[in-house]
Amino acid sequence: MLNAAIKLKDIISSNVTALVDSAADPAKLLNNLQREFEASIVALEGDRAKAVRRLKDLEANYVQNEMREADWGDKAKTAMASGDESLARQALMAREDCRELLSSIEREGQIAKTELAAIEEAIEELEIKREDARQRAQDQAASAGGHSTTARGSKTDKRLEKITKMQKRAEFATDHVSPGISEAAASRDIEELRRKELIEKELEALRPGSTSAKRRKSK
Q1: Confidence of residue 63 (pLDDT cuts 50, 70, 90)
Q2: Rounded distance between C-alpha atoms, residue 56 and residue 79, angstroms
Q3: Interatomic CA distance for residues 139 and 25, integer angstroms
Q4: Is the pTM of this model over 0.70?
Q5: Which of 59, 121, 131, 189 has the most other CB atoms within 10 Å of its CB?
């Protein structure tokens, strides 16, 4: 997967003008480039379809877990009203699990949206390069004696400036460094403490005789 990503970055950032100028057989090179661009576009179209499906699945999963979160909150109140504090605590813990899952889904959704945008941008850039190679091939075939194909240089180079920027924008390979084991463990412990503190506060608010409980009865 990494090798394919690197190859795609190389294709997107390639300079067609430089390649043609240095080629022993420009016509053959241009035909090969067109096939390479087309194959990359087809592959990216498949990736785009998968990314769209992934976003839809995440959206559906998010809605389901929102409903589960609300349901566990209601169950905690019911259990507390029945005097079963242990069951209420379990319900609140299950609700917190749902909240954590919702946060995870949100993060995955942002990543999926970023990936989809990068894929769509890459497709756009490759379509420009494919058209450029096609036009150059036509010019090459029309020119007698294999004259230079760079007469359209200034106009094409402006288009290629936009294309080569893709090398900086489309980071298909992940460069993120994972946190150390001790750091991750500390983060989990802190989060667990936060959960327990939150649950105890809510249980206190739900206990008969608490200020919050009195307010609910007075309404």
Answers
A1: very high
A2: 35
A3: 14
A4: no
A5: 121
- 11-15, 133-137, 156-160, range with greatest mean pLDDT: 133-137
Find, among 155, 132, 121, the residue nearest to 34 by Cα.
132
| Domain extent listing, the chain | 2-176, 180-219
Amino acid type, 49: A
Distance from C-alpha of 75 to C-alpha of 81, rounded to nearest angstrom: 10
Q: Which two tokens stand for residue 47?
A: 């990736």
- Architecture of the domain defined by 2-176: Orthogonal Bundle (1.10)
Give 163-206 pLDDT, tens digit per residue. Answer: 454 444 444 434 444 455 566 666 676 777 777 888 888 888 88
Long-range contacts of 33-38 (CB under 8 A, 24+ apart): 33/129, 33/133, 34/130, 34/133, 34/134, 34/137, 36/11, 37/11, 37/126, 37/127, 37/129, 37/130, 37/133, 38/130
* Burial profile 36-63: b = 16 or more Cβ within 10 angstroms, e = fewer: bbeebbeebeebbeebeebbeebeebee
Residue 135, both tokens: 């036009």
pLDDT, average across residues 101-126 = 92
Chain position carrying tokens 């920027």: 165
